[in-house]
């Protein structure tokens, strides 16, 4: 019985790789299976041994590039990195509708660069970088290359016969630049134009050309008077008071009166009433004065509301022997009462309103908790990490005191990260 020996039949491409000096570019697993005898024989084979060997002459122009890239680990890494960047770019930005609109603004640059590199990189591959179709590219090319003087935007009139005539665009500009309609909405300007039979397009087209022409109309906003910011430099130098209204789920309105130390933003007291109450403001002032009065004058800042400007508050302030001076914001002084107004928004939107309070009983209960949290628990950016109570008690306002652990953790972070054996990073 005659036994046959199975011999491996190697792909001709492998032989070409070795014959042309690209052995090192082959996968390691494949190289391990090639015997030294085969390698030596293929290296010394004549080029015309195989039919169709003429193809070698066709590809030899690329061999030097293949060799240089294959022999350079850095080149491989760079190419791989560019592919990753391109892929990640498209994954992130494909979901944004405005990306293609933004690219269309640079159609001339895109067309020019693709035309420059098309001898090296096929157009279809180049388009993948910008993630645009061949049809879109041809559209760009038509607009860029085939410019037409008969068109306002130099678009080819044969390719785009539905575009507006120059005189129609001049009419749109005439209406949009007219001072009489400067603060009108675009739709009102449009309807005036069609009523006068000066414009003969739909509203969408009017909007489109308005944008192309660079007109971004907006409503007129009355400039607000700018007031300087009131500054204080220590606790009990300036106090401010205000009233905010909160409605509970039972439909009742509750008027919450607050007194704040301006420097530390510490809430010195509060009262809940059914209406704006002069007696509530007097009570808050009196209680804070007896607890915190000092040898220096306290400026008391409020707005001109009836709860602040009245005989009840005035008589109490007179009884302090000029220890307190009442000033009306934006009247007696060129400052607003913005600090306590900002607090009103904080206490309502960050504390009270999310609780969906049902009635005054719940409001009173939770307000006590929330004012305590605001004063003693919640650090503030404007106080560089202090709570209002800390700043009111004299703790320096300096964020550096809260960053002492940064240096130690930075060293630890670097050490831990350098010891990490991340498989993805090693690829």
UniProtKB/TrEMBL annotation:
Residues 231-396 form the Integrase catalytic domain. InterPro entries: Integrase_cat-core, RNaseH-like_sf, RNaseH_sf, Transposase_IS3/IS150/IS904. It holds the Pfam family rve_3. Signal peptide: none annotated. One of its GO terms (biological process) is DNA integration. GO terms for molecular function: nucleic acid binding. This is Transposase. It comes from Flavobacterium cupreum.
């Amino acid at each position: 019985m005659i036994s046959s020996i199975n011999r491996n039949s190697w792909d001709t491409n492998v032989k070409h790789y070795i014959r042309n000096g690209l052995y090192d570019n082959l996968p390691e697993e494949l190289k391990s299976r090639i015997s030294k005898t085969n390698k030596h024989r293929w290296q010394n084979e004549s080029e015309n041994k195989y039919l169709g060997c003429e193809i070698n002459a066709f590809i030899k122009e690329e061999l030097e590039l293949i060799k240089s890239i294959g022999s350079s680990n850095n080149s491989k890494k760079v190419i791989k990195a560019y592919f990753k960047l391109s892929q990640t770019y498209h994954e992130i930005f494909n979901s944004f509708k405005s990306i293609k609109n933004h690219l269309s603004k640079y159609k001339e640059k895109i067309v020019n660069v693709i035309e420059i590199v098309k001898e090296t990189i096929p157009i279809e591959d180049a388009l993948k970088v910008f993630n645009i179709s061949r049809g879109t590219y041809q559209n760009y090319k038509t607009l860029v290359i085939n410019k037409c003087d008969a068109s306002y935007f130099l678009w080819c009139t044969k390719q785009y016969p539905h575009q507006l005539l120059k005189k129609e665009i001049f009419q749109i500009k005439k209406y949009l630049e007219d001072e009489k309609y400067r603060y009108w909405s675009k739709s009102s300007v449009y309807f005036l134009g069609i009523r006068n039979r000066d414009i003969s397009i739909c509203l969408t087209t009017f909007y489109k050309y308005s944008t192309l022409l660079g007109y971004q109309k907006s409503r007129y906003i009355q400039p607000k008077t700018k007031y300087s910011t009131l500054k204080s430099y220590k606790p009990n130098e300036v106090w401010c008071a205000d009233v905010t209204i909160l409605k509970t789920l039972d439909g009742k309105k509750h008027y919450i009166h607050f007194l704040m130390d301006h420097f530390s933003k510490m809430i010195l007291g509060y009262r809940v009433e059914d209406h704006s109450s002069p007696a509530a403001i007097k009570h808050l002032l009196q209680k804070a004065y007896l607890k915190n009065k000092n040898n220096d004058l306290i400026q008391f800042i409020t707005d001109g509301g009836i709860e602040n400007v009245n005989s009840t508050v005035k008589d109490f302030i007179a009884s302090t022997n000029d220890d307190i001076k009442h000033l009306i914001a934006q009247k007696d002084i060129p400052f607003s009462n913005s600090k306590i107004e900002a607090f009103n928004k904080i206490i309502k939107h960050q504390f009270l309103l999310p609780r969906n309070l049902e009635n005054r009983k719940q409001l009173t209960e939770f307000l006590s908790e929330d004012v305590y949290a605001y004063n003693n628990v919640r650090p503030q950016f404007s106080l560089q990490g202090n709570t209002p109570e800390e700043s009111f008690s004299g703790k320096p306002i300096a964020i550096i005191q809260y960053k002492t652990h940064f240096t130690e953790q930075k060293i630890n972070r670097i050490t831990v990260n350098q010891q990490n054996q991340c498989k993805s990073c090693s690829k």
